Amino acid sequence: MTDANKPQRISTIRRRSLLLGAGSLGASGLVSARLGMPYIGNAAAAEPIKIGMIWAKTGSIVDQSEYLAQGGMLALEQRNNTLLGRPAEIVWLDEPNPQGAQQNAERLVGEHKVVGMVGGALSSFALGISAVAKKAKIPYVAANAATGDLTGKSCNKYTFRLQPPVEVHVRALAPYCGEIGKKWYLLTAAYAFGQDIKKAFEAYAKANGITIVGADEVPVGTPDYSSFILKIRAAKPDVVIGGVAASDLTTFLKQWNELGMRGRIPFAEISVGNTDLWGVGPEAADGLYTLTWYYKNPNNPPEEQAMAAAYEKKYNRPAADKAWMGWFGMKSLLDAIEAAKSTEPGAIVAALEKWQVKRGDLDVHYRDFDHQMVNRLLIASIKPKITDKWDYFDIKAELPKTQGDIDKAFGSQAESACKMDAL
Amino acid sequence: MLDMILSQAVNGLVLGFLYVLIAVGLSIIFGLLGIVNFAHGAFFAVGAYVALVLAREFGWWAALLAPFVTGALGMLVEIVLIRHLYGKEPLLGLILTFALALLFEAVLRMIFGGAPLPFSAPRFLSGFVEYGPILLTKYRMFVLVVTVAALVAFWAFLTYTPFGRIIRAGSRDAEMVGLLGINLPVVFSFVFGIGCLLAGLAGLLAAPLWTVTPSMAASAIMPAFVIVTIGGLGSYVGAIIAGLLVGITIAMTIQFQPEWAGAAMYVLMAAILLVRPRGLFGEKWERFE
Q1: Minimal Cα–Cα distance from B274 to chain A, Å?
Q2: Contact residues on chain A for B140, CB-CB shorter than 8 A
Q3: Predicted confidence band at A44 (pLDDT cuts at 50, 70, 90)?
Q4: Is this complex's ipTM strictly greater than 0.85?
Q5: What domains are there in chain A, each with its CATH number?
Q6: How many cross-chain Cβ pairs, A to B, lie less than 8 Å apart?
Q7: DSSP annotation of B212
């Protein structure tokens, strides 16, 4: 991946091939016309259906993106790289920053003529891609971003989001933090994801008589947290609520342990990735978390278990939650294209709105009024003793439990900030 | 509040020493060879990964070889690539080392994958000591001691050994040193290797604190450039003072205005360059100007 913007698969057309192809096409048309035969050649049928994928190949989120991309590619491989009876291929471009994500989304639509897109590893990237999806009228599945705006005030008809928004994660985790203690310290990233976490936990704290004894916003890519940790130590909170993502969380937890804070003050964070904790190591891993998926959850349906097995066979390591998210987001888009029997954007959007799969007693689907996927979350803590280098979590609960709880956690149409536009 | 300021100041100084170690190799390579080594962060990452592999395969003590492996790799790069750029347009060196940085990151990603890998400090260096409000971990004190020892050793080598004098003379007037019959290419390979060795040492020491990923070079290269610029390009003492200044500035910004922490060192650099355009200890080099 020396060229970050180089598409993963590109058909190179040489001049000679082009001339030969054009000549053959012209000859066949001429022959069929002269002989009075119907012309059955169809240029579209020979062309592969292209799906755009935008996951980071460079930058701070690249560690998670590897799994997201592998999951997406696995979803297409499981269909033998065909869609609607035609060959299909994924074009994977980089998202080095929000502007880069937006530009590459435009390239996918303009140059590569993709019929749909999956990607947006960070909320700021996903918001940029979503804007392109809206303008270009191309279906887009945001399979990792958690900012509320994506299916809130910035929602649009072409954008669908897999990850429960920050508010849902917070509603699941906050009661557990409240049980630990009533003095909280917030350490959140200084961008959309972290700011949403800060706002949601502050709102919960205010409504539940909890005191915020300190709150710091942390720049992305901070290499040293020791000064932040000294502030936390001086504030003496009952629990620290984190909102730093990916390798930033890994760095924080390593230094949290190094400065002797592990076990002294509990740490909690929403929506962490398996890889973030794998990088911390068994000696330093600590905390209470929400997870979107876990490969060892016994409640995973057979299709997801089969995906996890296929992933492990191919990559020789367990499927991280991000691999599942990349797979599930891509699967929903591919399912929708098959269901629509068309690559026409409006038909795919309509099919995505009707798409659903069964997970236990729950029909997982995208809500039609904001295109937010409705699914459960896992509450998990780090095992007291880690013996398997991949298996770090004890699953404590799968929430929200009932359909009523789910409706409450995700919020109603009346509560939504989304004003959905038309096709 | 005074307690917190004292605590942050001490922490900032300790952090500053790690930054000094990252930056000083870059400063040496520029000061003595005139090469702006954009691949310095990549050598830092290579040092961390080599340490990780050696520690995993042979135990933590074997990881101490990582800086030497990185230094040897640096010498190889100098012999094969960098050597051809001496005396040529400085932009060429910049482009080449930038390409090397991308190449090294891609190679690390191909070999080890993109996910972060766990790497901890040895058990005998775990734990911390508290003096009132000041909290110091044994590992950070170890980093401080190693950094000071490495800086003093290199300074003594440059100042008191005949080879050190040749390096200093060669950096000022390579032609004259060559005319005296000294094999300068060997000297320059050695200097580039030393700079990379120091980057590898910083990578080894940072690996238990930072996240070991192929992209970790980015966390090192920007502070290194800022420190070298503040201290004055090529100034050994300047890099040390600037590293400590950056450490304290970041710590104090986190204490009082945490959301500005990412910008603090750049603001410091801009302020210093306004007053001293060559940096704190920068001087006019006839070779480059």
Answers
A1: 25
A2: 226, 258
A3: low
A4: no
A5: 1-164+298-375 (3.40.50.2300), 166-291+376-407 (3.40.50.2300)
A6: 135
A7: B
